[in-house]
Amino acid sequence: MEAELVALAAAGASALVQQMVGEAWEQTRGRVAAFLARGSGRDAAAIDGELEEARADLVDAEASGDPDARAEALAEWRGRMRRALRNDPRAVRELRLLLAELGAPEPAARQVVETHNHISGGTYYSTVIQAGTVDRGDRGGTPTG
After folding, report:
1. pLDDT at 130
2. H or E segment to which residue 14 belongs
3. Kindly report the CA angle at 127 between 122 and 129, in degrees rounded to 5?
4. Could you tell me the pTM of the whole model?
5. Residue 144: which residues within 8 A CB-CB, separation 6 or more?
6. For residue 77, which of 4, 1, 2, 8 has the smallest C-alpha distance?
7. Phi, psi angle pair for 128, to nearest 5°
8. If 0-12 CB within 10 Å is exposed, 13-18 middle and 19+ buried, where does residue 11 land?
9. For residues 92 and 77, is the Cβ–Cβ distance under 8 A?
10. Cα separation of 58 and 75, whole Å?
11. Are the CB atoms for 82 and 5 separated by under 8 Å?
């Protein structure tokens, strides 16, 4: 369950930061403030102010060419979203609804694949590679270029 919360918090932070620099910020800010206030014991208006300040900092930093501004904002809000999800079990549903309203993609479910290989006998004088899946990485299934 922890991996699911981490992925959901990351998706929420990504959507939030995207909205901060986008056109729909005013509609998003109040919803996110209410989400973060639930279960935290904090006032939504105070969180709303923090969100607005964080947005102003992000916009200014990006305008000045700070290459790390967005990554720093993502890290901060990912942590806050993860804490909100841990503090209130109902927050998972609320964040999923908020992501759907924002048109943000749901985090992909992680697929766990276990590979068990065994080599026995013989002498090997070169590299032996054992793998569960060998992939070209383009995920397209057809050669590129």
Report:
1. 64
2. helix 2-20
3. 95
4. 0.67
5. 138
6. 8
7. -115, 125
8. buried
9. no
10. 13
11. yes
The answer to whether the CB of 78 falls within 8 A of the CB of 10 is: yes
Question: What pLDDT sits at residue 63?
Answer: 93
| Residue-level pLDDT, tens digit, the chain, 145 residues | 578 888 889 999 999 998 998 888 888 898 899 888 887 788 999 999 999 999 999 999 999 999 999 999 999 999 999 988 988 888 899 999 888 888 766 565 555 556 666 667 777 677 766 665 655 555 554 554 4
If DSSP states are collapsed to H, E and C, what string results for 42-101? Answer: CCHHHHHHHHHHHHHHHHHHHHCCCCCHHHHHHHHHHHHHHHHHHHCCCHHHHHHHHHHH
Joined tokens for residue 74: 């993502």
Closest CA to 106 of 116, 119, 115, 97: 97
Q: Can you give the pLDDT at residue 42?
A: 86
Q: How many CB atoms are located within 10 Å of the residue 8 CB? A: 20
